[in-house]
Design brief:
Blueprint (H helix, E strand, L loop, with lengths): L20 H8 L6 H5 L5 E4 L14 E8 L4 E4 L5 E8 L4 E7 L11 E11 L2 E5 L2 E4 L3 H4 L3 E4 L8 H15 L9 H6 L5 H9 L4 H30 L12 H5 L8 H14 L6 E6 L5 H14 L3 E6 L2 H15 L6 E4 L5 H13 L3 E6 L12 E6 L7 H10 L4 E6 L5 H7 L4 E5 L10 E6 L3 H13 L3 E5 L10 H18 L5 E4 L5 H12 L5 E4 L12 E6 L7 H8 L10 E6 L4 H12 L3 H12 L1 H5 L18 H17 L7 H18 L2
Parallel strand pairs: 5-7, 10-15, 10-16, 11-13, 11-14, 12-13, 14-15, 17-22, 18-20, 18-21, 19-20, 21-22
Antiparallel strand pairs: 1-9, 2-4, 2-6, 3-4, 4-5, 6-7, 6-8
Helix pairs in contact: 6-7, 7-22, 7-23, 9-10, 10-11, 14-22, 18-20, 19-20
The protein binds adenosine-5'-diphosphate and magnesium ion.
């Protein structure tokens, strides 16, 4: 998203030496088309060659740089299929290290000479070993100034060294051509280095201080642009006329409920009603933990719309959820005689026709359906309210499409992903926010335990007993070693896992859910689980949000330390929907101290907002944004928010600038960038 403001940065990559059609095609797989893209392809990490670790101090599993003398010539083995394996050992004053290289026929190491080796140490049968370390002759001039080597996201055929070389060239080509999009007052106040320096330091830092300096600027710029885009959208929509609903006393609706609303629900309904009667279009995000009762708030709003003679539309990401909504809204609407209909992909044509006639007729009604509602030919001329559930899958672009369907409909987006307040303001800068930070009374606590690998057999015993008592079990297994962007690997890992589980738990019915399944297949598996045709659902992280499986009593998360706290909390929320005691087991092997703290937080804390704040504190926002799994925007610098103060500063500065100069007339380059974010990134990233 961050984008070097180069005057001629959009030069194609073929402007760089040696980039022909083949290279271009490979680079495109990384989303790199221009010199500008290449410069904005930030390192995901660095190899720290500046710190040499004595061999005796190498730790199992840790990545480090060693300076060692080659003890003996490389032993080369040929394996079937033309593969090769070579071995040697190196030593320093403190110890010996074995090295293995795969398929590196051209490697030359001179016995008796010193080299630097960079790689991950593994203890193997009492030996320290490294497989495929990066190697440089000690004293190599190219390393002397460059203590940190950038590590990029790669694709087939593109190596780290190649990207380093190419990026170096791109920087040289762009020298003197960077423009400063930020107002000078800001770069001064926040002491941000100029863009050219930032881009050069982020790729080729001499020290971690350089990295921090570059990041500070790039992060600020990225977030600032993002905030500006959000805040501009918000101020624009704040001027859009909305359907005017008639004021009504929410108590009238509350009296029809089988329960007393929580204080948080009352507050949220009040905030919504104020918007709905204001004449200005509502753009509100309702955030609340799983089970906090968001549906009721939406139902109150739908009731108000219908009471004013209008229609309300409820959209969900899947058919299954849409059907569950249809059932709940039917219950809420029954006392008032408001008709509730269901429209989704599988609705037969005749039914579709009948519903469409009702919509066209304009009489009050509530329509539940999938997001497909906005993609097909359904017009919603009389809709005064559109509710979108699980909003994090629903982007600005879809919201715009909705606006076209119904010109004055209010929007209520609902999300069960609690995120810290600071981040809410930034990520959803274009929305007002209501929070349900209170669970309805009597909600059972989900007993949560961190379970070490040694206790796995006990876990299986427990699962058997739960299943025998009619409890259903979710098991989430993340892909930890492979490339999680590769859906095939994800599928394979999950399938292997399910197979070993079937062997350990004979007689239990096990279903499998993964990213490779088509939407209809996912729904089929989910429906089978819901209908109790499965005891265990093994899933990768694609597990459906929001679906209510009342008999699900156990959530097992494998390699729990791999997940962020908020995500674990989300997963835990899949159980505890019915009356039975529910459990969450967080499986882990060895734990680092921060990971131990994270799991402990989860075992003792049940409030999603508190957990989100803890997550931010314990891991730093970079991790919080995590591996694309939160549905939050992907920023160009993954670890972008390593400083919360920068986030807040960016937001406040955006506010101040827009107040003084709403059209951004004083900074045309910045405006261009903000427009680009609004057009492209914001829409995509909120999806
Ligand atoms: P979510 O916020 O996850 O969408 P729901 O709206 O599905 O939560 O509510 C979860 C359950 O809690 C539903 O069965 C709902 O009827 C019930 N519920 C909602 N509000 C209250 C309340 N104030 N008191 C008791 N039960 C409630
Ligand atoms: Mg819900």
């Amino acid at each position: 998203m961050s984008d070097p403001a180069l005057t001629r940065g959009d030069a194609p990559l073929s402007a760089l030496s040696g980039v022909g059609p083949r290279r271009q095609a490979q680079l495109q797989k990384l989303g790199l088309f221009s010199v500008r893209d290449l410069l904005a392809h930030f390192p995901r990490d660095y190899e720290d060659w500046s710190r040499i670790t004595p061999i005796a101090r190498l730790e199992d599993g840790a990545t480090a740089c060693v300076r060692g003398t080659v003890a003996r010539p490389l032993d080369l083995f040929r394996k079937p299929g033309g593969k090769t394996l070579s071995r040697t050992a190196v030593f320093d004053d403190t110890g010996k290290l074995s090295l293995t290289f795969f398929n590196n026929k051209y490697l030359r190491l001179e016995t008796g000479r010193d080299y630097l080796f960079f790689g991950k140490t593994v203890f193997y049968g009492g030996m320290r070993t490294m497989a495929n370390p990066a190697v440089v002759p000690a004293g190599d001039a190219s390393l002397s100034g460059a203590g940190l080597k950038p590590l990029y996201r790669l694709t087939e055929g593109i190596s780290q060294n190649y990207l380093r070389k190419l990026t170096g060239e791109a920087l040289a080509l762009s020298a003197g051509r960077f423009q400063e999009p930020l107002p000078p007052a800001l770069t001064e106040t926040y002491q941000l280095c100029p863009p050219e320096e930032a881009f050069s330091l982020i790729h080729f830092p001499a020290s971690w201080d350089d990295v921090r300096k570059a990041r500070r600027r790039l992060i600020f710029e990225e977030l600032f642009t993002f905030c500006l885009a959000g805040q501009r959208l918000r101020s624009q929509s704040a001027r859009l006329p909305g359907a005017v609903l008639e004021r009504a006393d929410p108590e009238e609706f509350f009296r029809s409920l089988p329960f007393a609303p929580t204080g948080a629900q009352r507050r949220a309904v009040g905030e919504c009603f104020r918007d709905l009667c204001s004449g200005v279009r509502m753009n509100r995000l309702l955030q609340g933990d799983v089970g906090s009762g968001k549906t009721m708030v939406a139902a109150a709003c739908a009731w108000l719309a219908c009471k004013s003679g209008k229609q309300a539309v409820i959209m969900a990401p899947t058919e299954l959820l849409a059907r569950q909504h249809h059932a709940s809204f039917s219950r809420f609407a029954a006392p008032f005689g408001i008709p509730v209909e269901l429209l989704c992909g599988s609705t037969p044509a005749s039914e579709r026709k009948r519903i469409r006639a009702m919509l066209d007729g304009g009489a009050p009604m509530i329509l539940c359906g999938t997001h497909a509602l906005i993609q097909n030919d359904v017009a919603l001329p009389a809709a005064a309210l559109i509710v979108v559930d699980e909003q994090h899958r629903f982007g600005v672009r879809q919201r715009a499409a909705l606006g076209e369907k119904s010109l004055s409909a209010h929007l209520l987006a609902m999300s069960a992903t609690p995120i810290p307040r600071t981040l809410t303001l930034i990520l959803y800068g274009d929305l007002e926010v209501s929070r349900l930070d209170e669970l309805p009374p009597g909600r059972q606590e989900i007993l949560t335990y961190a379970v070490p690998e040694e206790k796995r057999q006990d876990l299986y015993g427990f699962l058997r007993r739960q299943a025998a008592e009619g409890g259903q079990i979710y098991i989430v297994c993340p892909l930890i070693d492979g490339d999680e962007d590769d859906p095939d690997e994800e599928k394979k890992a999950a399938a292997t896992y399910a197979k070993s589980l079937a062997a350990a738990l004979p007689g239990l019915r096990i279903g499998l859910m993964h990213g490779r399944l088509k939407a209809a297949e996912k729904e089929a598996v989910m429906t089978a689980f819901l209908n109790r045709e499965l005891d265990i659902l093994v899933s990768t992280t694609v597990i459906e949000v929001g679906v209510d499986v009342p008999d699900a009593t156990v959530m097992v998360v494998e390699n729990a330390d791999f997940f962020g706290l908020s995500q674990l909390h989300q997963l835990r929320g899949r159980v505890g929907r019915g009356s039975r005691q529910s459990y969450c087991f967080l499986m882990h092997r060895t734990l680092s101290e921060p990971a131990r703290q994270r799991l402990r937080t989860l075992c003792t804390q049940r409030d999603g907002f508190a957990i989100a704040e803890a997550d931010l504190r314990l891991r730093g926002p970079g991790d919080f944004f995590g591996r694309r799994q939160h549905g939050l925007p992907d920023f160009a610098i993954a670890d972008l928010a390593s400083d919360l103060n920068v986030l807040e500063a960016a937001r406040d500065s955006a506010q101040t600038l827009l107040r003084d100069d709403p059209g951004l007339d004083s900074c045309p380059l910045l405006r261009e960038r903000v427009d680009a974010v609004t057009q492209k990134t914001l829409a995509v990233s909120l999806n």
